[in-house]
Write a structure and sequence with these properties.
Layout: H1 18-26, H2 29-36, H3 47-59, H4 65-71, E1 75-84, E2 89-98, E3 104-110, H5 120-137, E4 143-148, E5 154-159, H6 162-181
Helix pairs in contact: 1-5, 2-6, 5-6
Length: 204
Amino acid sequence: MREQIGGERGAESVLLMPTEVIEYLYCPRFTYFLNCLNIPQHEEQRYKVLLGRELHDKKRKINREYLRKRIGCTGKEIDVHMISKKYHLRGIVDEVLYFADGTRAPLDYKFAEYTDFVYRTHRIQSILYGLLIQDWFGCEVKRGFVCYARSSYKLKEIFFKEKDFDEGLQIINEIISIISKGFFPKKTRFRVRCIDCCYRNICV
């Protein structure tokens, strides 16, 4: 697995949240406006974000023990705060699941419907949580889980390979390069994403 991260001046102090990586994948200019120009998103005003936060509050009150039994995990921790200076990551994973073979896995709740496949953004986010768990707990992570609230809490399992972790680290390197060099990246090639973007009035 690729270990080299950053390398530019100031890169060693960068700690990214998995959600920031997802925003970069949505459009690289999110990284520039937020981290280089320090222009906040005001994401608390967005409807989906509010619904997502409400979901995370509700899930604490719902007994999901049947999920644990279904996938054979032996224990779990909820809302785990983790930092990895090694991988330049920080974040809170909804649940860290324990398994009898000594491995652990992230479980992430999504306010979304499952549409026959796991989106790349959901897969990458799970991979990043896997990196955090590996470094924070010093254990092996072979898979992750995503729970789709709007599809009756459908649970999808994602198996990780070495190339998946390499892909996650490559994306982290790209983001750190933007932050440390301060260059203006190309915007997303999907113009429809610009319609609801909070930076659309200042993006040229």
